[in-house]
Amino acid sequence: MKLPKLKRKTVTEASLSFTFTRRAMVVGGLQAGIGALLIGRMGWISVAENEKYNVLAESNRVNLTLIPPRRGWILDRTGKPLANNRTDFRVDLIPERVTDPEGTIRSLTHLLALAPEDVERIRTEMEKSPGFRPVQVAEKLTYDQFAAVSVRLPDLPGVAPSQGFSRYYPAGATVGHLLGYVGAASAKDFEERKDPLLITPGFKVGKDGLEKSFDRELTGKPGAKRVEVTARGKIVRELTTRPDTPGNAIKLTIDAGLQEYAGRRLATQSGSVVVLDCRNGDVLAMASMPSFDPNSFSDGISHLEWEMLSKDDHVPLRNKTLQGLYPPGSTVKPMVALALLEAGISSKDRINCPGAIRVGNTLFHCHKKRGHGSLDMRGAIAQSCDIYFYQMAQRIGMDRIASMARRVGMGQKFPLPFASQSYGTVPDPAWKLKKYGQKWQVYDTVNATIGQGYMLINPLQMAVMAARLATGRQLMPNFLLGAHRPDPEPVGVPEEHLVTIRDAMSAVVNGGGTGGAARMGIPGVMIAGKTGTAQVRRITMAERAGGVRGNASLPFKLRDHALFQGFAPFDNPRYAIACIIEHGGHTNRVEDAPMIASDTMSFLFDQAKAMEKLETLEKGWGGPPAERLARQMGAYRLAKAIEKGEAPPAAGNASEAANAAGNAANATTAAPGDDDAPPPPGPNPAAAQ
């Protein structure tokens, strides 16, 4: 098949001109469109997004740094600071910005003369800390030290010097457990709150005690500082600064002078003192000693100091007032007597005390081996006769006693601004059946009636018990001055019963009873109270036959607890007090619970006289707590250095080193008891005084 022959297209000048013109129009249209887009985009950037790019440009030139707000002060009832702020030069490290960790730490060690334990702490925290979280290098620097670091910043990436305020606790260790301390926010805190303030160098949050409970109120609003910088981050000049807004002040019911006195008066013992105002339940003092210095924790405690505190057998890291649980011993006998009166037993009824009675197949002893003879209720409380209460308690049963115990505050959960509390136990038949699946036995009643067996209490509950026995009202402990509270309900017993109990408690101290050491030397002021001894070990019949070992011959952890609760003046109660000495064993009269309580109460009536006595006593104790803690730290540091072979044993310090090493070796942090402890193996015939 023959294809048709195509005609050759004739190209003319006119056709070429037309084609060129069309192409030029297309290209021109495209160029115009692109130009319009560029003009539109430039207009959008310069007008609509003007603010955004101004901010980005400004951020390249200007750094905005948050200024941590000053924490609100914590004040006592008179306005005296318990926790305040002081000007501070500090240096931090931002781990994610540090390029040469070891080189940077070496430079800072040289510039700031850091101690070896501080260097070790910094290295450890650098390894564990999230990259955004600042690691404290040093606080409380001199201006020269601060300036020496500041001028070297271009060579020290990740180093963040700052001038601000640090938390300061004037009373030191005596408020450690009450106020707690502050510290850098944790990664968990940041994840929960997503607040950039939490990763600002120098900013700290409450970590324990009231500092933690009132952290939101105490934290103010941050300020901001704008500085012009070079491309390498070197500061050129400071532009503007917006000041921070301090946090709110918190005013407590605490009396600062009494709080410090109570902490110092506990001397070298492990224990607690609580003082309440009988008019409204205000907590005037709540000391737990030994304690830690919150200034050390807020500054960044060294690993060596932490190790010393955590291994101390006196457990300075535990708040004994709220977290310690103890058998109340004979301090519950006035409460039991009140239950007896409510049950219809006359205070004149007498019981003969032969020194021991048999309950079931077990012999229960009185603390006085030969017995007290015939005693009525007043005499039984004054002499702390166990046999009287053994027999009387069996007449009314445990349910009546437990009901009265709860009404006077034992086992009660108080609404307090503290995260961690232990509430103790008021046992009864229903409680034992629920917890252990066992029936209540007569020996359980006998044990409980002298504050042993399953019964447990903390020092604050004991102080509340004293206040309610003194007033007949169910006072509630309170820490915020002026807080609105409903009027307390009555305990629910006749006034004449309370008068009987108060008179018997006065006889304990002022009428030849077991608490003579608590007698106050203040004219016109008499204290009423009740002593107590709580066993922490079981005394076997073989030991009784061969002679019960005295507390002085026992290891510290096997000694009895010493207790005292009371109020003053006894005829018009104004203040109530509780004191518990862990493993005190009544081995030292001056450092025993009755005399410590008496001297602490004396401070409220004659401050000058009480302080004069305390200062005299402290000379024999090695000074106030701060001096003793510093000396203990020095001895512990020496002992560890000798142990590692870093220092030769020094003749003058050998005994101190040995004592420090002994504390570390024999340390334990176990609590004396808690509600989850297994039941005692059978009856616990404990003697209580």
Automatic annotation (TrEMBL):
Q: Which top EC class is named for this enzyme in its record? A: hydrolase
Q: Which SUPFAM superfamilies match?
A: beta-lactamase/transpeptidase-like, Penicillin binding protein dimerisation domain
The cellular location(s) given in this protein's UniProt record come to: Cell membrane; Membrane
Q: Recall the GO molecular function terms of this protein's record.
A: serine-type D-Ala-D-Ala carboxypeptidase activity
Residue ranges occupied by any Penicillin-binding protein dimerisation domain in the UniProt entry: 67-239
> Which of UniProt's keywords are assigned here?
Carboxypeptidase, Cell inner membrane, Cell membrane, Cell shape, Cell wall biogenesis/degradation, Hydrolase, Membrane, Peptidoglycan synthesis, Protease, Transmembrane, Transmembrane helix
Identify the main location: membrane
Composition-biased stretches, type Low complexity, lie in 647-672
Q: Cite the EC number.
A: 3.4.16.4
Q: Where is this region: Disordered?
A: 645-689
Q: Where is the Penicillin-binding protein transpeptidase domain?
A: 271-599
- UniProt-listed InterPro entries: Beta-lactam/transpept (IPR050515), Beta-lactam/transpept-like (IPR012338), PBP_dimer (IPR005311), PBP_dimer_sf (IPR036138), PCN-bd_Tpept (IPR001460), Penicillin-binding_protein_2 (IPR017790)
Q: Where is the composition biased (Pro residues)?
A: 678-689
Membrane-protein topology: Single-pass membrane protein
Q: Which NCBIfam families match?
A: pbp2_mrdA
Question: What is this protein's record name?
Answer: Penicillin-binding protein 2
Q: What is the protein's species of origin?
A: Sphingobium tyrosinilyticum
Gene (UniProt): mrdA
